[in-house]
Input
Amino acid sequence: MNILIRDEQPEDIQYIEELIKVAFLNEVHSSHTEQFIVNNLRKNKQLTISLVAIEDGTIIGHVAISPVIISSGETGWYGLGPISVLPNKQGLGVGSLLMNASLEKLKQLGGKGCVLLGDPNYYGRFGFKSYPDLNLPGVPHEYFQAISFINHIPKGDVSYHEAFDSTE
Ligand SMILES: CC(C)(COP(=O)(O)OP(=O)(O)OC[C@H]1O[C@@H](n2cnc3c(N)ncnc32)[C@H](O)[C@@H]1OP(=O)(O)O)[C@@H](O)C(=O)NCCC(=O)NCCS
Output
């Protein structure tokens, strides 16, 4: 596969929305609102990183990173997700390319670390782990994971931007 990873461009936006919708269509643990989340993060200028994966001129993957708030007051932390790959392109390494590229970019932007909600079996391979004192209220602890770029994991409750409650 010859995959290019780059920042989203204005002309990508409608394709990103469609891609996210299709990627999550058959996901059991999905609210099926992920495309609205990305649209509303962008509208609220909270889409810190939005990368697309392109194969033969077609967008086949996308990842979003946005700021989170930690109750301890520590700043510089971000949340990764949603991340999506077209169903017929899954399992080929595109998700891993997007994970690595977005984390690298976050580091370059000066981010201190990143959190996400997801299957530890998948995200563990990128260095994400759950930590006893860093929580996302209301979700099972082992699914909420973090990676630090500064050798320090904050303590407290994490909240995502209100765009994550978007239903349209
Ligand atoms: C999750 C997702 C982005 C991964 O992208 P991908 O291109 O399929 O991932 P890769 O090819 O880099 O990695 C494949 C590996 O991840 C595993 N994997 C993929 N999705 C997984 C998931 N949701 N849970 C656990 N493991 C998963 C595969 O089993 C495979 O494991 P292996 O390397 O041991 O064989 C993609 O499957 C997807 O879009 N899923 C639907 C949307 C979604 O659930 N997004 C995540 C929540 S935000």
Observations:
- Residues 23-24, 27, 81-85, 90-96, 118-119, 121-122 surround coenzyme A (CB under 6 Å).
- Residues 30 and 99 are 19 Å apart (CA to CA).
